[in-house]
């Protein structure tokens, strides 16, 4: 039985970012599926939940813009990452997801060749990744590159610093993009 994905975004995602907790709003207390963002929902979350969530959405858009253009076309959809965030991020057909559940890697071997190749899983935060492993919510082997970044090339998973300006600075976003390029070239 496959695990239910819970979060915001497109069910047909190519890039999923996993965070430990949903925004602290009543709507998310009962959310039990993956739903696209609608009607300025990101702005509403930012207003109700503060600067921390604003950073998550901003850094997510910046990461998408930094991904290798030969593999991802997010930067071609809008002139700036800010405009991309406001007009496309986590919406229907955006190919992006922000998940509050664990990665669902229970794909049949026949599906793995086609779908998993196109899906990139980014776990935001070393602590979150280690908690998922410790609690049996993620069955994988990471190659820890240093204290902040880890990679599982078989399942297309990268662990990086949490989506915050200080933790995932522009230099570290560039490193994340390089790791994605390495993953893609190994397929």
TrEMBL record:
Any Pfam family the entry gives: DUF6942
Alphabetical list of InterPro entries matching this protein: DUF6942 (IPR054222)
Protein name, entry field: Orphan protein
Taxonomy, superkingdom: Bacteria
């Amino acid at each position: 039985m496959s695990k239910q994905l819970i979060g915001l975004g497109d069910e047909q995602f190519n890039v999923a970012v996993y965070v430990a907790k949903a925004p602290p709003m009543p709507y998310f207390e009962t959310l039990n599926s993956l739903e696209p963002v609608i009607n300025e929902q990101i702005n509403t979350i930012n207003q109700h939940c503060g600067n921390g969530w604003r950073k998550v959405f901003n850094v997510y858009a910046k990461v998408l813009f930094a991904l290798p253009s030969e593999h991802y076309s997010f930067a071609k959809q809008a002139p700036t990452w800010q405009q991309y965030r406001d007009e496309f991020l986590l919406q229907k057909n955006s190919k992006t997801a922000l998940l509050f559940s664990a990665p669902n890697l229970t794909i049949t071997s026949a599906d793995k060749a086609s779908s998993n190749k196109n899906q990139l899983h980014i776990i935001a935060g070393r602590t979150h990744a280690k908690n998922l492993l410790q609690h049996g919510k993620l069955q994988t082997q990471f190659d820890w590159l240093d204290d902040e970044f880890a990679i599982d090339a078989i399942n297309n998973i990268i662990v990086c610093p949490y989506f915050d300006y200080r933790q995932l600075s522009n230099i570290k976003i560039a490193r994340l993009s390089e790791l994605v390029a390495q993953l893609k070239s190994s397929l």
